[in-house]
Amino acid sequence: MHEWLTITLPISGVSINPLLLVLLGIAVGVLGGFFGMGGAWMVTPALNIFGFPMPFAVGTDLCHMAGKSIISTRRHAKFGNVDAKLGLAMLAFDVVGIECGARLVMYLERLGLAGPVIRWVYVIFLFLIGLLVFYDFFKKRSLEKSAAANGSVPGGSAVRWHETLHKIKIPPIVRFNVAQVECSLWLPAGVGFLVGFLAGLLGIGGGLLMMPALVYMIGCPTYVAVGTDLFTVMLAGFYGAFTYGMKGRIELLAVIIMLLGAAPGAQVGTIATKYIRGYGIRLMFGCTVFFAMISVILKQLQMNTAASWVVMTAVSAMTLVVIVGMIKGAARELRARRALR
Amino acid sequence: MKRKFPAIRALACTAVLFLLPLGALASGEKEGKLVHVADTRHLSGFNLYIADLYNTNRLLFTLECIAITALMGLFLGLLMDWIVGAIGLDLSKHEGQE
Questions:
Q1: A171 vs chain B: nearest CA distance in angstroms?
Q2: Do A13 and B73 make contact, defined as CB atoms within 8 angstroms?
Q3: Residues of B in contact with A240 (CB under 8 A)
Q4: Which of A252, A251, A232 is nearest to A32 (CA)?
Q5: Does the interface ipTM go beyond 0.95?
Q6: Which of A81, A136, A252 to mutate to test the interface with B (most CBs of B within 10 A)?
Q7: Which of A30, A48, A312, B51 could be A10's S-S partner, Cβ–Cβ 3.0 to 4.6 Å?
Q8: What is the pLDDT of residues A181-220, one digit of tens each?
């Protein structure tokens, strides 16, 4: 790499080509805005490959995640996809869950079981989430086919666990207007706690778990799940930035450079949700979850370089698909407008 | 009320004050990994300011990180809205289907 393309970051002392940070920002901005997640599973290994020590990779990622999520959350809020009331109800119990999960990790660490148990639990959960998303997708397709044969139109999700969960009528019963959900407050609270507990146990941001939880357990439309998830990711990102900042593990210059890439990326990812069907987002999310699972399995097998390359390849491929989807949709919209004039 | 065994209490408190940090150091990572100092010798301008702040006032450094991140997020979001709006895309509604 040419020296004139390399900068030395002032705090960690890492020498890096800023273009790499901009490209990483674009990729995580696109996928974060599209799927509604922070993307810690993508950014942390990438920064680590670029030479950041792991604590700096995590802290820098969390701080950048907060800024990037502001951009995506603003856009989703304007589209009417953010249910702040639902997000706050879940976040309050999410924090308690994270603390309980973290304490279980400490306990497992004392038993000497933390590493392998956590990684395999993570693999199992990613596998189950991926399986659920694919099952839902293919069931929906078969329902649509049979409905088309009958001349009717099927509505909503194919997997309808939320209907059973909504039968729990423990007061207070709350209406979440944006998500169009009326349920006991204890449902989002319980789901928030569960997601937080798993996030604390597995050491991840939680967006990967929150999005399917909002869809399948709360009953949110996919777009509202994405927007609401980003809202909680934004708040969690600021908390993470504070705690890692106090520990001195944020490289601010890297955050600023990554945000320059994440800004257009987040805009593209968020606008792409306008043109790609909810079930298309779910299918791509399922693929992403499986790639994340493969990378964790490779890490468990001590194949760290291969794991990081799986993540980078998956991120590049998904980013490309979303960008192409956005450009096609935007071109269609512009053509339709010109035809109306 | 007169306290019993003042000398023993004072000794115990002193021991705790000395032993707690020692225990923490013994059980944790090596000091070199826990304490990080930014090398400011070859820095100038914004980098020097941030690195100095990092070394001298961690709370202010953290607050500035958060403030800069939030302001950049807002500013870049507005800028991108303007650019995408100028292209001619309708950003006021979302007609996506499940």
A1: 30
A2: no
A3: none
A4: A232
A5: no
A6: A252
A7: B51
A8: 999 999 999 999 998 888 877 767 677 888 889 988 998 8
